[in-house]
Design brief:
The chain has 5 helices and no strands. The two termini are 50 Å apart. The radius of gyration is 25 Å and the shape is elongated. It has 183 residues and is an all-alpha fold. The protein has one domain.
């Protein structure tokens, strides 16, 4: 007890452990939360993407085996089916906590960026098929898969940056209060 303390209150004890410099502890927690949030987002995006990949490859191989369409046209059909499947998965699973205002704009941007992804994905298949003559079923599936992988990197960046934008913190807490009031 400090004899020079005239406050009359209980004695103050120093916090245990060294004090963080310049708010290091809160910054570390914020970075950890952001990293965990990004890992969660990547996992959900990957889950929807994996299901979309299966849809894409199944439709591709089914249409290719049942029709005489050229390989890239078959791939475009499969990609369009997968895009529709993925929109539902992204909107209602991966990014369900994101802003739901402006659905027309969201869908327009989703389709625009998906079209760019479609060109990337099928461009790889086109070059392999018509540039190098690799047109067997196995080769087509390998290059279809490679094209999907490259396009996925672009789609992840564009969807999270432009389509399914994060709600600003103040807006998010308002929405949480409204959601809690409705419960």
């Amino acid at each position: 007890m400090d004899l020079n303390d005239v406050s009359g209150g209980p004695p103050r004890f120093a916090p245990s452990g060294p004090r963080p410099l310049f708010g290091a502890r809160p910054l570390g927690n914020a970075l950890r939360r952001r990293a965990l949030g990004l890992m969660r987002e990547v996992a959900k995006f990957g889950a929807v993407g994996a299901a979309g990949l299966l849809v894409n490859l199944l439709v591709f191989n089914l249409v290719r085996s049942l029709t005489d369409l050229q390989v890239v046209r078959t791939s475009v059909i499969a990609t369009v089916v997968a895009i529709a499947f993925n929109y539902v998965g992204f909107r209602y699973f991966t990014y369900r906590d994101r802003s739901k205002t402006g659905r027309t704009k969201e869908l327009t941007l989703f389709l625009l960026f998906s079209a760019v992804g479609l060109v990337i994905e099928n461009g790889v298949l086109y070059v392999a098929t018509y540039g190098f003559g690799w047109d067997s079923s196995l080769e087509s599936n390998v290059f279809k898969f490679l094209g999907i992988g490259i396009a996925t990197l672009f789609r992840f960046w564009s969807y999270r940056t432009w389509v399914f934008r994060a709600i600003p913190a103040a807006e998010a807490t308002d929405q949480e209060r409204v959601g809690a009031a409705r419960s």
